[in-house]
Write a structure and sequence with these properties.
By secondary structure, the chain is mostly helical. It is 73% helix and 0% strand. 7% of the residues are buried.
Length: 92
């Protein structure tokens, strides 16, 4: 009986570890994508003579830990305000 409980606990711990590992990778890729988008928008504006720093979009995403432990999908529309999302929508 104790062995079954121990194996069940270990399986649950392993599944949790795999989930967090995959989520960590997805959060990293999402945040990297957002950095690339904000950099691209900023550079296009600089080349056009308008200097608007769009890195505030990245800063408004929330912390890495908040994303890591949240069940929200890693899509910009869930992490940015509607106004900010509309600014970057064409770059996605």
């Amino acid at each position: 009986m104790g062995g079954i409980i121990l194996i069940s606990f270990l399986c649950l711990a392993l599944m949790t570890l795999v989930w967090y590992s995959r989520r960590n990778d997805k959060v990293f890729k999402f945040r990297t994508k957002m950095i690339d988008i904000t950099f691209k928008i900023s550079m296009e504006n600089i080349n056009n003579g308008n200097y608007n720093d769009y890195h505030y979009l990245y800063n408004n995403l929330g912390s890495y830990e908040k994303m890591m432990f949240s069940f929200k999908p890693l899509k910009p529309e869930y992490w940015l305000s509607e106004e900010d999302y509309l600014k970057i929508k064409e770059y996605l």
